[in-house]
């Protein structure tokens, strides 16, 4: 037999070795250790669900969850089931009031119990974590309104800590899973509850749990939580989850929160060589260096890196993920139940997808295979099916010449053994023949035929046997939610917008007071411009000089900006009960006498950015700009009107009056006839008012506010200033 046949035989023999009982082994580490029962011995697999959002207003979510997930889990038979947050929705029918609903939590408890029963799995292998929707308005964990600590599986199985760890052990392989809850300690109602808030203590606990099996070369480490790192704040000392994950060179961090509506490529590769502060432009930041991949000694150090995989939501997408670890190679497949249940699920475990699963260390592994013994000799795939599978085959396509050509078409054999947990199919191949400098030249697909003649296919995906990474670009929406480090953006964005608005308001007054005599505004006359560019430049200069002449509006906007800086914006109820009213400013929520903690000045930072930045950028700033434009339009139209009537301003000299008589023709006449610019500005004003009133209504509903008592300045100053500006600029 050749080398490929020997590798196949050894794998078959390993699968038939005596199997363990599957019960928990004695506690040797800090977390729970589970001896995985049955074969195949080289691979374990788990299931992830996220963002269930079970709601009293959408009972179909819980119905579909029980209808599809229970039978699917019975077919897959995973070693763990991870539910990564947003178990319930906690929103009113109009989506504006956000607080926990006990009925939803009872529905979640019943649904999960039904899934456990229908799947035949042990409830102890289920781990459910909190998301931001699961703690809306909960002032303290374990309190009256904290239904998670009453109805969740973690609570009912005695797992009450913020960090949970479990190790799956099969043979010499250990697979460590560490889950954590990074929701707010003092949880507010939405919408100002959208970020994860890890503490220094939480990071220390995660670090402690991830340090298990550090001396084991055959250990794989996976962490799971709710919030992606782009929505996870820093601790009080400036530390981050990323620091801890890189320290332990995590394989992958599994999370939720963002939902499929933002895109399907919500993945991100992190590495120590590229410490990104504010943003990362693409899935892969930079390119891996090959300089450290030549050393194949046992003492060679693996690069610090990890993958971050956000998964789709159950809420709208009905998505479930199956994740497998095979000889340390981590892969996954996402299952979409929107079109119904699945009779067959195929998860290729090797080779890996070169777009989303390849690690920098894969280059090192490829070069060092001869010295370390290879897991490369076999194409491997898991096949889960309700029917009997009669044929599984692997196809490899070569796209070097543009059109995909089949270069490998081989049947796969099932690994036999007693007490198998699932079906692993393998096929020997000449893996060295597929080494290529292009990470996306070769594409893999698995086909499975059942006894009813139905063929199922895996997703066609590229692979690079020599460990290269295929570059994939985010869409703008994917970059917006995964690439930007939002907790770090808040303060720079806040002060940049505030500074710009103060400049827009203060500079015109300075020019008006200091430069009016030296440079009279009449010298700036947009009606004489001959192009759009000249109109815009002249209009901008004229706005700087004319804006302060509307004294009431100018002073009102200046005072409003100072109000936003030094006073609370509004008052509202931030907890489930209505006996505590807090005030919100750009610094956060101030909660009087909460726990009598003198160090707790503000909470909800940077979550308040979802209120602060939209108000500044889409209401206040446009108001300043549109008021300035109204002033320019009124002044310019007055000049145009006087030129038509044959009159002139007292300040105009004869030559300027002679120029003005020519404005009735050409470009300027087409612009100013009928005051079309003013009509456009009135439309923009209406849009600003609509946006502002919509925001105010949302806040009133969210925090049970009375706008006339709790937020009069925030709600009514901008509309009054806009209406007054429209009135003052209406007359010529």
Task: Give structural attributes.
732 residues; alpha+beta; 7-stranded mixed sheet; 19 helices; 34% helix; elongated; disordered N terminus
Q: What does this 3D model show about the protein?
A:
The chain is 34% helix and 19% strand. It has 19 helices and 23 strands. Strands 13, 14, 15, 16, 17, 18, 19 and 20 form an 8-stranded antiparallel beta sheet that branches. β3 (81-84), α3 (102-119) and β4 (126-129) form a beta-alpha-beta unit. The termini are far apart. Residues 1-23, 25-29 and 651-667 have low confidence and may be disordered. GO terms for molecular function: hydrolase activity. Keywords: Membrane, Signal, Transmembrane, Transmembrane helix. The chain crosses the membrane at residues 493-515, 553-571, 608-632, 705-727. This is Calcineurin-like phosphoesterase domain-containing protein.
Q: Could you give a quick summary of the protein structure above?
A:
With 732 residues, the chain is an alpha+beta fold. 34% of the residues lie in helices and 19% in strands.
Structural class: alpha+beta
The major sheet is characterized as: 8 strands, antiparallel
Choose one word for the global shape.
elongated
The first-to-last residue Cα distance is: 98 Å
Average pLDDT value? 84
Beta strand %:
15-25%
How many whole angstroms does the radius of gyration measure? 32 Å
Distinct helical segment count: 19
Number of DSSP strand runs: 23
Which regions have little confidence, pLDDT < 50, spanning 5+ residues?
A: 1-23, 25-29, 651-667
Helix fraction, binned, reads 25-40%
């Amino acid at each position: 037999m050749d080398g490929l046949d020997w590798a196949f035989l050894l794998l078959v023999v390993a699968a038939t070795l005596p199997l363990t009982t599957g019960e928990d082994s004695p506690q040797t580490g800090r977390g729970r250790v589970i001896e995985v029962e049955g074969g195949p011995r080289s691979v374990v697999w788990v299931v992830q669900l996220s963002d269930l959002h079970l709601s009293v207003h959408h009972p179909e979510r819980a119905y579909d969850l029980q209808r599809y997930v229970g039978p699917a889990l019975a077919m897959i038979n995973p070693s763990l089931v991870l539910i990564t947050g947003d178990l319930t929705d906690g929103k009113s029918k109009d989506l504006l009031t956000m607080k926990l609903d006990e009925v939803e939590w009872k529905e979640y408890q019943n649904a999960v119990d039904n899934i456990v029963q229908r799947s035949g799995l042990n409830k102890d292998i289920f781990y459910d974590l909190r998301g931001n929707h699961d703690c809306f308005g909960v002032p303290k964990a374990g309190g009256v309104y904290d239904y998670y600590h009453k109805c969740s599986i973690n609570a009912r199985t005695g797992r009450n800590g913020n960090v949970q760890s479990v190790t799956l052990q099969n043979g010499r392989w250990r697979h460590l899973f560490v889950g954590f809850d990074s929701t707010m300690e003092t949880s507010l109602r939405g919408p100002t509850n959208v970020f994860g808030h890890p503490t220094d203590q939480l990071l220390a606990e995660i670090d402690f749990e991830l340090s298990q099996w550090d001396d084991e070369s055959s250990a794989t480490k996976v962490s799971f939580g709710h919030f992606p790192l782009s929505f996870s704040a820093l601790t009080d000392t400036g530390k981050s989850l990323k620091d801890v994950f890189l320290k332990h060179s995590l394989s992958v961090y599994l999370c939720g929160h963002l939902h499929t509506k933002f895109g399907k490529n919500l993945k991100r590769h992190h590495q120590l060589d590229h410490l990104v502060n504010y943003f990362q432009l693409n899935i892969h930041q930079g390119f891996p260096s090959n300089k450290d991949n030549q050393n194949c000694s046992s003492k060679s150090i693996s690069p610090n890196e990890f993958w971050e995989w956000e998964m789709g939501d159950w809420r709208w997408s009905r998505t479930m993920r199956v994740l497998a670890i095979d000889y340390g190679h981590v892969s996954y497949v996402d299952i979409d139940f929107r079109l119904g249940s699945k009779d067959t699920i195929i998860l290729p475990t090797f080779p890996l997808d070169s777009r989303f699963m390849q690690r920098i260390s894969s280059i090192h592994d490829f070069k060092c295979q001869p010295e370390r013994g290879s897991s490369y000799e076999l194409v491997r795939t898991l096949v889960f099916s309700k029917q009997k599978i009669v044929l599984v085959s692997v196809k490899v396509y070569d796209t070097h010449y543009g059109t995909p050509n089949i270069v490998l078409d081989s049947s796969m054999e099932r690994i036999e053994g007693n007490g198998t947990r699932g079906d692993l199919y393998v096929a020997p191949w000449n893996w060295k023949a597929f080494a290529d400098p292009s990470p996306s030249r070769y594409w893999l697909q698995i086909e499975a035929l059942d006894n009813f003649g139905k063929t199922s296919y895996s997703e066609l995906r590229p692979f690079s046997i020599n460990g290269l990474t295929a570059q994939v670009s985010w869409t703008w929406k994917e970059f917006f939610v995964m690439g930007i480090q939002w907790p770090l953006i808040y303060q720079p964005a806040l002060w940049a917008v505030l500074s710009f608005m103060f400049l827009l308001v203060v500079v015109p007054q300075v020019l008006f007071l200091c430069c009016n005599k030296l440079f009279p505004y009449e010298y700036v006359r947009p009606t004489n411009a001959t192009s759009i560019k000249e109109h815009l430049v002249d209009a901008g200069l004229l706005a700087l000089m004319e804006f302060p002449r509307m004294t009431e509006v100018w002073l009102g906007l200046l005072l409003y900006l100072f109000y936003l800086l030094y006073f609370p914006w509004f008052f509202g109820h931030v907890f489930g009960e209505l006996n505590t009213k807090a005030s919100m400013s750009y610094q956060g929520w101030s909660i009087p006498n909460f726990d009598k903690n003198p160090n707790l000045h503000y909470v909800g930072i940077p979550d308040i950015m979802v209120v602060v930045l939209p108000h500044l950028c889409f209401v206040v700033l446009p108001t300043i700009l549109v008021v300035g434009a109204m002033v320019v339009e009124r002044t310019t139209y007055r000049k145009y009107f006087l030129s038509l009537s044959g009159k002139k301003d007292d300040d105009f000299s004869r030559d300027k009056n002679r120029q003005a008589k020519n404005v009735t023709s050409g470009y300027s006449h087409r612009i100013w006839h009928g005051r079309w610019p003013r009509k456009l500005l009135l439309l923009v004003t209406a849009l600003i008012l609509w946006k502002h009133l919509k925001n105010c209504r949302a806040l009133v509903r969210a925090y049970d506010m009375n706008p006339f008592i709790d937020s009069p300045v925030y709600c009514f100053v901008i509309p009054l200033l806009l209406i007054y500006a429209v009135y003052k600029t209406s007359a010529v």
